[in-house]
Design a protein that fits this description.
- The chain contains 10 helices and 33 strands.
- With 664 residues, it is mainly beta.
- Strands 16-17-19-20-21-26-25-24-23 form a 9-stranded antiparallel β-sheet, with no helix packed on it. Strands 11-10-15-14-13-12 form a 6-stranded mixed β-sheet, with no helix packed on it. The protein has a 5-stranded antiparallel β-sheet with strand order 1-30-29-28-27, with no helix packed on it.
- A hairpin with a 2-residue loop joins strand 5 and strand 6.
């Protein structure tokens, strides 16, 4: 331990922390400005909750006392479990009465012939057959309609070489440095990215991996993929390796994702800017485009060995990333498709729902400070009786960007070439240009600048849509607005959208703040959890979320730390209805340094899958001491706790002891 080293200095970790200023230079209104204007001084709350003017954006039910709510005849909490204690240590913890079993760890066998994981003998060939690194999104595709037998689909977002490989890190006089990676290590990184499709079955109450499953598959940074939709074949996507502009090797930085109603696996490409290095040729046409996306950022060293990640050698390559990827999980020989109709930006995920008219609606967040919320509506309709008929629904549709009004209204503005400012005069010669430069199109339409929009989850039970806004410490006091109400927003908030007439395809709706996160006992934070929320129940930095089959909201977090909040990240159950609205309870927590990803519930709600990402990363140990954590000196060796084994990201299956639905 080195008490003088107190922050994370490792490049790929810093990339994922997304602590930059953001790249949106437009004059569009910020969400904080909108919220502050929405509520005048007469809306200031008095008493213990009078921490900020915009606290009034929370539903009035959430601000009632428990007795007032009961008197109003509102129902209590939808969740029945004994909350665990918030804190920090080297292990994971789950609520009493539940098992939390590690199902799949980095390096576990996925394909036939995969060797046993040996951290001292890593190779590209081995990793391509093993479970990848930093599991993020988790999805479940039932086989024959079963809740106990299906395909687990998992994104592998990024790699932490300082946690993966021995001998990389040096500390001299309290200064941390990381050696350059070898080509062999870069190749392992590339194989550890992408995704995993693996058959699993629940037997005797425990989930098992079917190692010889015929549908098992690894997708990596080198898997051949097809580019489809309006941008396919465009000159801006053509490279020396692919002069057609329709083929690309691999996918990377897959954060959250989704499973479509027709059972395909969605991978969302997020922080693609970090993989590129070098300089564009002088005066290159893509300079402004790349500046808006932060390209090149250079956290990864792949460009040292592969020309396609060096802008000076392959200037169009970044335009081939930042898309939504669709994979037919039922065909392990199928070619994944990058669906350009859903736009190019730093996609957090793509959760979907079938609207009443049969069209399919996808909600999309652009995870960067001051960027936007989107949705995509298919032109065609979902046919539940003909899977094949749905397989290209994502190539035709309308992409919309959100503008949140000060009065609680909102608009979904279409990104269609030729409409409004999206014309050749503004640099858009075709719909392909609109999609390649989605952020620029949103800028020109006046979309609302948000506090890192991450997961966006439609709720088919109550008709609402929940937007996770993780944080934005770069928002200044003069930039607050109605939907982003706090300056220096360290803890994030959750917005609830109600589409007009309950129609998910609507182009207008209403919104309100469900929760402003952080410690409610610190008045300056301005958190708005209900008064029924305990000291363990509050959280900061909402990131991923899930809605179970009963319509209940579960929130996973990213960024809680020993010194920041005195707790690790975890999974919280959040009430959205009745007297318990805005009440939160801690159900599961991760080891020190880890982020909580997933979560995912089986259709019968009897299993919750969660993904523990980058355990042991960060600049603190479990006691909150400043320290670098790296391969030789880890803050935790979860989940194996063996001296010869590094920490390993893993998927955990949570089940009720004796069986039954989670939290019921």
């Amino acid at each position: 331990m080195n008490e003088h080293v107190t922050q994370n200095l490792f490049p790929t970790s810093l990339l994922e922390e997304a602590d930059g200023e953001g790249h949106n230079a437009s004059d569009n209104a910020t969400m904080g400005e909108i919220i502050s204007k929405r509520f005048s001084r007469r809306n200031f709350l008095q008493g213990s909750l009078a921490v900020s003017a915009i606290a009034a954006t929370v539903s009035p039910v959430a601000l009632m006392s428990a007795d007032e709510a009961r008197a109003a005849g509102k129902a209590g909490s939808a969740f029945n479990f004994n909350e665990i204690e918030a804190g920090v240590d080297a292990k994971h913890h789950v609520a009493e009465g539940y098992n939390a079993d590690v199902l799949l760890r980095w390096g576990d066998a996925v394909l036939p012939g995969a060797p046993s994981f040996d951290p001292l003998k890593q190779s590209t060939e081995a990793q391509a057959k093993q479970f990848g690194y930093n599991n993020d999104y988790v999805g479940f595709i039932p086989l024959k309609g079963s809740s106990t037998h299906g395909l687990l689909v998992v994104n592998h977002e990024y790699t932490n070489p300082h946690l993966m490989f021995p001998g990389l890190v040096k500390i001299v006089d309290g200064k941390v440095s990381q050696n350059k990676l070898s080509k062999e290590q870069v190749d392992v990184e590339m194989a550890a990215h992408g995704g995993t499709i693996v058959e699993i079955r629940k037997e005797g109450g425990k989930w098992q991996v079917i190692a010889d499953g015929k549908l098992n598959r690894r997708i990596t940074s080198n898997t051949p993929m097809q580019i489809t939709g309006p941008a396919a074949g465009h000159d801006r996507l053509k490279t020396a390796a692919d002069p057609t502009g329709t083929k690309v090797f691999g996918t990377l930085n897959n954060c959250a994702g989704g499973v479509t109603p027709w059972g395909t696996y969605i991978m969302a490409e997020e922080n693609f800017h970090g993989y590129f290095q070098g300089k564009l040729p002088e005066g290159h046409a893509e300079a402004a485009n790349y500046k808006r996306y932060g390209v090149p950022e250079g956290s990864y060293e792949w460009g040292n060995f592969y020309d396609r990640f060096d802008l000076s050698k392959e200037p169009n390559e970044p335009n081939r990333f930042g898309w939504i990827v669709e994979v037919d999980a039922m065909d392990p020989t199928s070619t994944p498709k990058k669906r350009t109709a859903l736009g190019r930006f730093k996609h957090e995920g793509a959760e979907s729902i079938v609207a009443n008219n049969g069209k399919v609606v996808f909600y999309l967040g652009d995870d960067e400070r001051f960027d936007y919320v989107y949705k995509f509506v298919t032109d065609g309709t979902f046919n539940p009786a003909d899977r094949k008929a749905n397989m290209d629904l994502l190539d035709k549709g309308t992409l919309y960007v959100a503008k949140f009004g000060e009065d609680g209204s909102m608009q979904w503005m279409p990104l269609i070439h030729g409409q409004g400012p999206l014309t050749e005069a503004n640099g858009f010669k075709s719909q392909a240009d609109v999609l390649i430069e989605t952020r620029k199109a949103g800028d020109l339409l006046g979309a609302t600048k948000m506090d890192r929009p991450e997961d966006i989850q439609p709720n088919g039970v109550n008709g609402k849509v929940y937007v996770m806004l993780t944080n934005n410490t770069k928002r200044k006091a003069n930039q607050v607005n109605a939907a982003n109400p706090r300056a220096e927003n360290a803890f994030g908030h959750i917005i609830e959208i109600t589409e007009n007439d309950g129609d998910f395809t609507a182009t207008a709706g209403k919104w309100e703040v469900l929760l402003k996160c952080g410690d409610p006992s610190v008045a300056a934070v301005g958190a708005t959890f209900s008064t029924e929320t305990t000291k363990n129940g509050w959280f900061g930095m909402p990131d991923n979320c899930a809605v179970d089959s009963a319509g209940r909201l579960w929130v996973a977090t990213d960024g809680n730390s020993p010194k920041g909040t005195g707790r690790t990240d975890g999974l919280w159950a959040v009430d959205t209805e009745g007297s318990a609205r805005a009440t939160s309870k801690l159900f599961f927590r991760v080891p020190v340094g880890a982020e909580m990803c997933g979560p995912l519930f089986t259709p019968d709600d009897e299993t919750a899958f969660v993904a523990v990402q980058h355990p042991g990363d960060g600049g603190e140990d479990w006691a909150g001491h400043g320290r670098p954590s790296y391969y030789e000196d880890l803050s935790t060796r979860w989940p194996d706790f063996k001296p010869d084994m590094p920490t390993r990201p893993a998927v955990v299956a949570i089940t009720k002891i004796g069986g039954g639905k989670i939290a019921v």
